[in-house]
Design a protein that fits this description.
It is a single chain. The chain is an all-alpha fold and 83 residues long.
């Protein structure tokens, strides 16, 4: 029995690669499905092709950057409880 057979199926490199590929294909398919969906835009830019995909990406990146900034501002020393 090799190492890959004793590991949990979700931790095997082959499974992880397949999940990434499957997720990427699914996301690309959802963006391409935007061609066939009538969006009914409310304020112009939300009618752009792939709006919800890039809006979600930009929002996620913004949340990460804000969280990193808050971490820098709110960080305490490692020996905080030793005082």
């Amino acid at each position: 029995m090799n190492d890959n057979e004793t590991r949990h199926w979700l931790t095997r490199p082959r499974t992880i690669r397949r999940l990434w590929i499957g997720g990427g294909v699914m996301l690309a398919g959802l963006v391409l499905a935007d061609i066939f969906v009538d969006a009914h835009p409310s304020f112009g830019v939300d009618g752009a092709f792939g709006f919800y995909a890039w809006h979600g990406l930009i929002s996620c990146v913004a949340m990460i950057l804000v969280a990193k900034g808050l971490g820098v501002l709110l960080k305490r020393k490692d020996d905080y409880y030793d005082d």
